[in-house]
Design goal:
single chain; 497 residues; alpha+beta; 13 helices
Length: 497
Amino acid sequence: MTKKYLSVLLALILTATVLSACSQQTGKNSHILVTETTTEHTTDTSGFKLSYSQADSLNPFKSKTLNNQIANTLVFDSLFVLDSNFEAQPSIATGYTYEDSDTLRVTIPSGIVFSNGAALTASSVVYSFNQAKNSPHWKNMLRGISSAYAVSETVISFELNYSNPNAHNLLTFAIANGDTDKNGYPIGSGRYKFGEGNGTVFLTVNRKHEGFNPHFTKIQLVNITTSESIENAINIGNISYAFRDMSSGGDVKMNCSKKPVNLTNMVYIGANGKTGITKDENIRRAISLAIDRDTVVKSAYRGYAKSATSPFHPASRLGKQSQIFEAKTDLAAAKLAIKQSGYKQSELKLDILVNRNAQRAAAAKLIKQQLEAAGFKVTVSKMTTKGYRDFVKYSRFDLYIGETRLPDDMNLRTFFTGSGATNYGIDLDSSDTASNYSRYLRGKGEIGSFILSFSQEMPFIPVVYRQGMICYPRAMQGDMQGYEGNYFSNIEDWYFN
């Protein structure tokens, strides 16, 4: 055995020993992974800057602006956070169980404290849930949960408004207890806490959050309100990070590094399943088959979207299990479905309603061309927001281009219940898809049965899931990770060259 080989082997053994020792170290907060390195750890108290709105509240249950809500994710922990695949990962929570189809119980550890030293208990979670239920940020997301109560100091029970096997994905609201610091800023248990000095607001490391050792120990908050000003600020270096949800498109040629962020915003085609040729499920299937979703992604959304190959987001577990659409057009299958419908060529007339959203208008133009290639004669009616809403509400359409943000549990009840906000054109009384979805939620049926009926009936036609964008300076290092609602997932690894 050569000396060189022995040297390499010894180095490997030493490295493995160090890594093993690091992996066994944990802090009091069991949801935090603690790692150590032998490299020098530099700190930065002035380099990293975030935008916030001085005119808006920094209370997580009162804030209305996106930049304040983003900043709050550094100050407040939640029971769970979602990863890039929309899977719930424990943050404060250590586990959950479904006691029955309508009751979800979550366990938290003892010993977690807020930044002022107060204990974080089940009562804190119940208080936060009740606040979040009425907040601008979480009230829509939490509609499926009726109430919460503390079973013990470490167990919380959530009562569901309807059966939902994925309800734990909704528990991403901020945890607080109503306390404020001497300057009136709300107290959280997150990685940072609010501070104030010399007329500025900032974030400093919360030393009660054990195991968190970032390079950025102080983050300046810069008062910037409009999205245009935020874009300009990051281009000239006044702030170090921005998230854009890309809801209105706009210029993405910003002077920064960019990272796409998956969103639950589904862009879809609503079809009138009650009257006209779109009442025929063969026609609806033909429409879906004729669409080239990849082209819509590239042209209408400038690449900031994912082709919807399922009713669920393609990155999600449910989406991966139920890929029933092709991302590319299948003209031969589309023409066969038209033939099976029995309609004559002269009857294949469709009108697409769309509002003045630039991306959806561009998508409508592309879809028109794709449907015409399959044999349809298509017009596009571009309407004001009010006119569009009225026509859709009263089912005065063949097709419409819509967008809805699904809750984090990927729940589709908005399409399949009488009170749903996007059920327009769907004949719920005769829809096998709606009844199969209800059975799936109640645990009485399989997701496969729902997907099978959906692919046959095609009650609506998913097109793409939009993406947002994280933007940060090119000098930023550290494998930038961030997801919707969990924008700073590994901020402890970020640093400037």
